[in-house]
Amino acid sequence: xxxxxxxxxxxxxxxxxxxxxxxxxxxxxxxxxxxxxxxxxxxxxxxxxxxxxxxxxxxxxxxxxxxxxxxxxxxxxxxxxxxxxxxxxxxxxxxxxxxxxxxxxxxxxxxxxxxxxxxxxxxxxxxxxxxxxxxxxxxxxxxxxxxxxxxxxxxxxxxxxxxxxxxxxxxxxxxxxxxxxxxxxxxxxxxxxxxxxxxxxxxxxxxxxxxxxxxxxxxxxxxxxxxxxxxxxxxxxxxxxxxxxxxxxxxxxxxxxxxxxxxxxxxxxxxxxxxxxxxxxxxxxxxxxxxxxxxxxxxxxxxxx
Length: 305
Hints:
Order of helices and strands: EEEEEHHEEEEEEEEEEHHEEEE
CATH superfamily of the largest domain: PEBP-like
Pfam family, one: Lustrin_cystein
CATH class of the largest domain: Alpha Beta
InterPro entries: Cys_repeat_1 (IPR006150), Lustrin_cystein (IPR028150), PEBP-like_sf (IPR036610), PEBP_euk (IPR035810)
Radius of gyration: 22 Å
């Protein structure tokens, strides 16, 4: 955590003391001792970093360890790469009774949180394109691009008739807004996406001819509004060079930081064959700095490399 830069003094780490001076509020802000400056300074989590955690069905002990299996870990724990950062090794303990919350787990496994969103949606948003249901994290080959000619049909979410809602579809790969509908009313507990609800940014299908080539990750989010959008605020939403995280942060007076519902899917130029593969088998495709793991049902797991 840094001080505000002034004309006379550049930005500096904020000083603190665990017993005398607390750190200001931040993202898990803590007062830690720096061996570099030999002072207590305030630190906080990075916006684009996720808390280290063990692979599925392992308990996480936030203790770094060496390269060996049990190097530096307590009895019963193994030294394993963190699921959120393979370059970091932490102590993990097997536990097959752990349950995982969805859709948060899938959003984090695919790095949508925290790279694209600060928080995962509360519930999954169910969608169909031209009658075909698209599963959470499903990867669709470009040969089927025609199913995206029309906007998705949204269902499976109960809404409050006293509230209004915002629906946004973003190509997280190119930073473009593919669809934006605001001030959506609720009628009988369902979103009213009839023709009278005008789109702020009209729907466009994913353009896989755009660079970067490879995979386009589309994120569809539904937000409950605290108040109505004003036209001047909506006119400032850029169709290109768009960052969901910044947009949410700049509109906290209208939107909650946590989406009410959401889903994501991928569209790729890379043709893949899954026939004959068992559910446990997979193949990896390297494209644009990400590794995509394709399981029996094609799905995307994004890992920075």
